[in-house]
Automatic annotation (TrEMBL):
InterPro entries: GPCR_opsins, GPCR_Rhodpsn, GPCR_Rhodpsn_7TM. GO terms for molecular function: G protein-coupled receptor activity. The chain crosses the membrane at residues 28-52, 64-86, 98-120, 141-166, 186-211, 242-262, 274-296. Residues 44-293 form the G-protein coupled receptors family 1 profile domain. It is found in: Membrane. It comes from the Eukaryota. GO terms for cellular component: membrane. This is G-protein coupled receptors family 1 profile domain-containing protein.
């Protein structure tokens, strides 16, 4: 017996098994996708954390510190996403059978994922204040802001857990707030309001930085007699880099945010098909944030390649040694 998610959407919270039977196109696709992307994101994020902690932790500017914290959150999210995909494969289907696993995933994934989205805006704000307005605030100011962002996410999760307002999502691969309950809708509103604020700060800050870069480059070129071609190349390079970050963040996060906003007014809109085409973008942000972090830090990227090559060489040597011993 299947359950129609369109029945009394505001007052009836469907059970996880009822949501599971509505998954489109089938219960295999999204869990496999989440297991794959979550594993890749974790295998990328963990080496970055290792390399930065070992070689660069004493020389990071505040924007790189916050970026590293965002990578750490995304790495934790990727682990939760991967395990969620594994546990929800049809042969196991454990997240449907054991609601406690849903609760654990909400704390592991929702807290870190929402905080990561908010940190993007904090990083953009710091860059804009420093580059455009030449304002350098103390590092602790930004960490206080991040602490507030983390507290909001944790408070949201506590609210939905204590009021039984979480459940399996129509995508079938993860648990999150339930829009079919009052407190679940409240949690969504808080999450979407803060996320929208972060995106607005991100857009305004990076657009201001790009505009400021073009204005100052022309001024420096005239005042210092710099090579116009070289100045143009550097300006375009900065523009492409910042706009790429902006576009990637909007593409990976905005579809999910928009569908959730519409779903608050009409829960029947957020169908399994809509979830299938929006949730993957959000999951991909776990991978893209690590890629962006490496793209902005060439020294870390070079050291990461060296470290991975060392690990690979060590593994090959150990494997050959075991083969020689067995022979």
């Amino acid at each position: 017996m299947t359950f129609s998610l369109s029945l009394d959407p505001y007052n009836v919270k469907p059970s996880d098994i009822e949501v599971y039977h509505e998954i489109w196109p089938n219960p295999w696709v999204m869990p496999i996708f989440m297991l794959l992307i979550g594993s890749i994101a974790f295998l990328l994020g963990f080496p970055i954390l290792f390399v930065v902690h070992k070689y660069f932790r004493k020389e990071l500017h505040i924007d790189l510190q916050m970026g590293l914290f965002m990578v750490a959150l995304d790495t934790a999210s990727s682990l939760g996403i991967a395990f969620g995909g594994l546990l929800n494969l049809p042969p196991l289907n454990l997240m449907v059978k054991y609601h406690s696993l849903c609760i654990i995933q909400v704390f592991c994934v929702s807290t870190t994922l929402v905080t990561s989205m908010l940190i993007m805006g904090v990083i953009a704000l710091e860059r804009c204040l420093l580059i455009v307005y030449n304002i350098k605030l103390e590092d602790k100011v930004y960490w206080i802001i991040i602490s507030v962002c983390l507290s909001i996410a944790v408070a949201n999760d506590l609210m939905v857990v204590c009021t039984d307002s979480i459940g399996l999502q129509p995508s079938g691969g993860m648990c999150h707030y339930s829009v079919n309950t009052r407190y679940g809708r409240a949690a969504y509103i808080i999450m979407l309001f803060t996320s929208a604020g972060s995106f607005c700060v991100l857009i305004v800050s990076y657009c201001k930085i790009v505009y400021n870069r073009h204005v100052t480059s022309r001024r420096e070129q005239l005042a210092l007699g710099l090579d116009p071609a070289k100045v143009k190349r550097e300006t375009n390079r900065t523009t492409v880099k910042l706009l790429s970050i902006l576009v990637i963040n909007l593409v990976t996060n905005l579809p999910y945010v928009i569908t959730q906003i519409v779903g608050l007014f009409d829960p029947t809109y957020y169908t399994p098909r809509v979830a299938f085409f929006t949730v993957p973008f959000l999951v991909l942000s776990l991978w893209w944030n690590s890629v962006i972090y490496l793209g902005l830090n060439e020294k870390i990227y070079i050291k990461l390649k060296e470290t991975v090559n060392e690990w690979r060489a060590k593994y090959v040597r150990n494997h050959l040694d075991r083969l020689n011993i067995s022979l």
